[in-house]
Amino acid sequence: MASCSNRAINSRPSPRLPPGPDPGKPGSIGLSSFGCGEPWLIHGIFEVTLGGVAGGGLGLGGGLAWITTMGTSSFEGYSGFVVAYWLLGGIVVGIVAGVWMGVRRG
User: Fold this and answer.
1) Looking at the domain assignment, is residue 43 inside a domain?
2) Which of 74, 75, 90, 94 could bond 51 through an S-S bridge, CB–CB 3.0 to 4.6 Å?
3) What's the pLDDT tens digit per position in 15-63?
4) Number of domains into which the chain is organized
């Protein structure tokens, strides 16, 4: 985890721009404070994205395994539909799991 030594970045106000978010302040959504307490919004987006990607990968693998072991017909792209349904189901399950993990961690 990064150290919180970047607090001096926003200490001097710019004459043209308003000061940015305070990295030391709890609940700050500034990207500069990511290593200093990990803001809940960025952390939540990361968990949902990671869950969706992992779930999609597992769903794709599960769908391909299903059509291989069950000998699903490829007539009019039926096997592609089966794989797509597994993929979408995996993405949904992964997103739900990511949200659940985020809520569980607090």
Assistant:
1) yes
2) 94
3) 565 566 665 566 555 554 445 555 777 888 888 999 999 999 999 999 9
4) 1
